[in-house]
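*** C-alpha cells ***
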Amino acid sequence: MADLWIEVDLDAVIHNYQQIKAKLAPPCRLMAVVKADAYGLGAVEVAKALAEEGCEFFAVTTIAEALILRQEGLEGRILVLGPTSQEDWAEAVTQGIELAVSQLSWIPHLEEIAAQTGCKALLHLKLETGMGRTGFTGEQLTDLAAALQQAPNLEVAGAFTHFARGAQRDRSYTRWQFAKYQDYVSRLEDMGLKIPLKHVCNSAAFLDYPEYHLDMVRVGTLLGGHFPAPAFAGTLDLRDPWTAKARIVHLQNVPKGTYVGYQSLYKSKRETTLAVIPVGYADGFGLEPKLVPQGLFDLAKIIVKNTAAFFGLHLGREKLLLKGQPVSTAGKIGMQLTVLDVGRIPCQLGEEVVIPLRRTLANPRIPRIYKKNGKFYRKRVVQEGFLSINEECI
C-alpha cells in the first residue's frame, strides 16, 4: 500500500446529495457539477455513485471531462459549461453531450457538424447577465434567435446564467442579474424559441434563493461537503468525504537546539521526536491559492496571517493530526518530504498522519481509496492508449 493516499467517502457524498435533494421542490432537478475531477474527489466515481442514487444530470467544464465520463459508462445527461473547441464538437455531439453556446459564430458550424453526424446537437444558451465572462448579451438575442431558427439540427435544451455574487450578503446584484435573465429568456421565447430547462443557481444561490431554483440547480461545492461561504454553515447537514493521509517513513529522537530543514529555519526548543512523511509541494501540500483581499478587513487578516507565519505561527491552517492530536511541521516543507515535530506523542514507523491537503491542489497521481457501503476499494488507473480503471478491494 502507498505511503501517501487520499480516502474519499462516497457514502458522505451520497448523504450530501440527499440533503440537497430534500431542499428541492418538484419538478426542480439537481445537476451534479463534477468539474475539475469532482473538485479532486474523482469525477467518474462520484458521478457513478450519484447516478445509482437517481441523479440524471451532470456538468463539467470541458469536453475532455465529459468524454471520460461517457467512456466509463455514465449514461446520464452531461452538460459542458465552458467554451469549447470546434475540433471536439463532432465527438461530443455523437456521444450525446450537451454543449453551452456563448458565441453566435458557433451556431452555423455546430449545425453543419450535427447534420454530418446525423445527430441532434443539444445546446444550453449561456446568457451574460453580469458575470462578465461568457454569454450572449441582450443586444445579441435577436440575431441568436434568427440563427437558431435556421439550424434544424440544433435543439435548445436549456438557458442559463451564472451569478457573480451569489455568496455575498448584499443581494441587490444577484437580484439584478436574475431580472436580466428573466427578461432575456422572455424575449427569446417571444421570438419563438422553446427553452425546456431554465437554470441559474450554483451552490450559494441554491441555499440563499429558493425562489430562483426554476427547472434545475447546478450544485458542486455542497456535494463535496463544503459550504460556499462561512455564512452558510449549518444550513445543511454536510459530511466531508475527503481525508488525505501519509505514513511516517522515518523517526529520529533529537536533542534541544537541533536545526531542521532548508536554511535551518527551525530549531527544536526541547528534546523531541522528528517524524518524516512523504508529502510536499509536488503533491500540493502547503500550497494555497492566491486570493485578492475583499476590502480592508480582509487585507488586515492576510497581513496578520503572513506576519504570524514569519514568526512560525500558522493561523487558520488546518492541523496535521497524529493519533488525533495536532502536530506541526518542523522547518520548510520540501518538494516530496516534510518533517514533523511530534513532541512526546508515542509513535512508530508506518503510523498514519492526517494531512490538510487542498482538494483541487492535490496531485492527481496520489492514489485514491474509495469507501462505499462501508467497504473500501482502490482505483488503479492504467494508461495503455486509453483510460482504463481497475477496481481492487481492500
Q: What stands out?
A: The chain has two domains: 9-239, 249-349. The two ends are 10 Å apart (CA to CA).
